[in-house]
Amino acid sequence: MKTIPILGIEQFEHQAQLEDFYSNNLEHHLKKNREYFHKPHKHNFFLCVLFTQGSGLHEIDFETYTVQAGCIFFLRPGQTHFWQFNSSPQGYIFFHTQEFFEFHFTNNKLEQFPFYYSFKNPPLVNIALDKIQRMESKFVEINKEYYSELPFKKQKLANLLSSVYIDLSRHYMAQGQKKEVISLRYFSTLRALEQLIDKHYRSQKSAKYYADALHISSKHLNRILRTTLNKTTTQLIMERIMLEAKRLMVHSNNSLSEISEILGYEDYAHFSKVFKKMTHMNPKEFKRNYN
């Protein structure tokens, strides 16, 4: 069975001897990892990359984004992505584990930042050309600290990381990418729901199951999702199933009937009907069109 590779931080260059944080200039990073970046793959860490030059495309979970100077992309663990460049990219990249950030900021979570708030939020922000240099200087400072051998290095990196994320969140929200989180309780419930769906979507497709698991009513759970994402619980469940279906259709050698079984549908005809309702094309059409 063909599977999508999942890359860990330990697979990358470690001159700095850190197991939970990595930084590099983009040109050098892509050169060292040329066998990965143009093929679909996943990460088990959070990733942030700034482009100061270059052009191309970035596909993240079947959504295609334009790469250009001033683009900053964010990826969460488990997302499938790859790059296609038309001209040589330049910039900076860093990635880190969730534990790296939350160890140093025990009362804060990565998901408080709007680009990590939900998989439904756009994974990029565009920095105006006259502000790129200032933002680049922050990435340069992170990169220099990463390769330094100074005392309190992890603490400094954590504080630089937090500062960058705060500045990027301000840019992100100023562009109208995401409205303010309505309440911390709603935010926590949404995050818990996404984690539950990600764990159980193959076997549990009922909105009531997830409401019961969260110890709230189905009506209240729908109210939370309407407020935060303008979706229903059922929509969120089905979107996760469809995403995995697309991944398996494109990145595995499984037959369509095998994929339907993997996703918990014993009857392929029923799965095909559901897929078409959600995507407006049947599985065979999707696979053919994507290829």
UniProtKB/TrEMBL annotation:
Keywords on record: DNA-binding, Transcription, Transcription regulation
Keyword Transcription among record annotations: yes
SUPFAM superfamilies cross-referenced by the UniProt entry: Homeodomain-like, Regulatory protein AraC
Pfam families reported for this sequence: AraC_binding, HTH_18
HTH araC/xylS-type domain boundaries: 191-289
Cross-referenced InterPro entries: AraC-bd, Homeodomain-like_sf, HTH-like, HTH_AraC, RmlC-like_jellyroll
Keyword Metal-binding part of the UniProt annotation: no
Name of the protein this chain belongs to: AraC-like DNA-binding protein
Organism: Arenibacter algicola
